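Appendix B, example 12.
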Amino acid sequence: MLEILRNMWRRKLRTILTILGIAIGIFAFTVMGAMALKFNKMIDGAKKYVTGQITVTPKGNNAFWGGGGGGEMLPIDVLNKMKKVEGVESVTAMVEMPLEEPKDEGDAQMMSFGAPDLIVAMDLESDYRNRNWETLTMKDGRMIQKGDGEDQVTIGHNLAIQKKLNVGDKMEIRGREFTIVGIIDQTMTGPDTIVFMALKPSRELLVEANPFLKSLKEQADKATNISDKEFKRMSKKNQEQITQAKAFKMEDISTGAGVSWKEKTDPEDVVARLKDQFKDEVIVYSPRKMSEEIGKASATFNALILGSAVIALLVGGFSIINTMMMSIAERTREIGIKKALGASSLVIASEYTIEAGVIGFLGGLAGVGLGSFVAYLLNSKLMPEGAEIFLLEPKFLIGVVIFSLVLGMIAGLIPALRAARLKIVDALKEVI
C-alpha cells in the first residue's frame, strides 16, 4: 500500500486533479441523494396516511391537501348515512386548511419542497382511526383528545421550532388564541408542520377565511332572527330564500371526511360501495390509487437522482481510466523490471486496480465530505423556518463512498489488464 501511495504522490498534480474530478461528481450525487432521501421520506409518510383511510371530499372540491376555495360543504346527514354502508367501521368529518393566509396571490401558487403548514381537525368524539397513524410519538405533552377544550391544540415538531413554542404556550392562529398541549416528535413527514385541533374551532376559522361560507352564515344568522309573523308576510320567493338560508348548519362544513373500515374487509370493496351509493354527493378516493399516484411523483424524482449517479459514474470512470493509462505508459519499464524479478500478471493487475480504487475512494471521501457539509449548512440555515430539505443518513453516505471505491476499481480494470499483459522484453525496451 505504501508503494501505491508513493506512486500516486510521484504524479501528485495528476492524481489530485483526478480525485477532484471524482469528488465533483460524488458531491453532486451526495447532495441530490440527500435531497431524494428527504423527499422519499415525505412521500412514504403521505403513502402511509392515504393508505390508512378512505378519503372523501365534497363533490366539486378536489383540493384534497388543505381545502380549496369552494363551498366546503359535506352535509353531516351524508356522513351519517356512510356509517351504515357495509364494511364501514367509522366516519369522521375533517377540516384541512392552510395555517396562514397566503400573503398574495403569487404565494398561493408557490410550491414548497417541504410539507405545507396546515390546520387539520377531526371529530374527537368519533371512533375513527387511520390504520397507519393511530398514534404519533410525542416530544412533549400529549395529543388532543376527547374532552379537551376548543382552544387546545397539538403542533408538529417543525412548527414548534419555527415559532419557538413550547407546551403551555399560547399560539395565535388566524387571529384566534390557542393553548399548546403537545408537540409531536419529528417524523420528517407531514405531521411536522401540522396543527391538530378540534372540529368546531377549525370550522369557525374556515368560515371566517372563506367569503362564500361567511356569506352563507351571515344570511343564516339573519334568517334565524326573522319572526314567524314577518315570515308569513313575505312573498313565496323570499320565503324560499329564507328557508334555504336557515338550512345552513356549521356541522355541514368540512373539507373532507375520513372513513375507516372493519377488520378483514377489503377497503377497495368499501370504496366501490361508497362511490355507488354517494356518487352525486362526494368524491371517494381509493387508498390504492392514491398511493400509486404519489408513487409516480417519487419515481420521477428518483430518476433525476439516478441521472446524477450516471454522471458521477461517467466523469469519475473516464478520469480514472485516463490517469491510469498515462501512469502505465510512464511506468512500462518499471512493470518490466517487476515481472523480470518474478512478479506475476495477477500481482501487477492487482497493484493498478488497488491504486485506481484508492483514487476513487479518496475522491468519494472528498465528495461525500463536501456534500455533507453543504447539506448540513443549508439545513442549519433553513432549520429556524422548519424547512430542512436534506436528509443525511450514515448508511447512504457510507454507501456513496463504497460506490466510489468500487467505481475506481472497475475503471482501473482496463488499464490494469493492459499492464498485466505487457511482455517483459517489450517493457524493458521502453525508455522512461
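The CA atoms of residues 152 and 179 lie 5 Å apart. The first strand starts at residue 54 and ends at 58.
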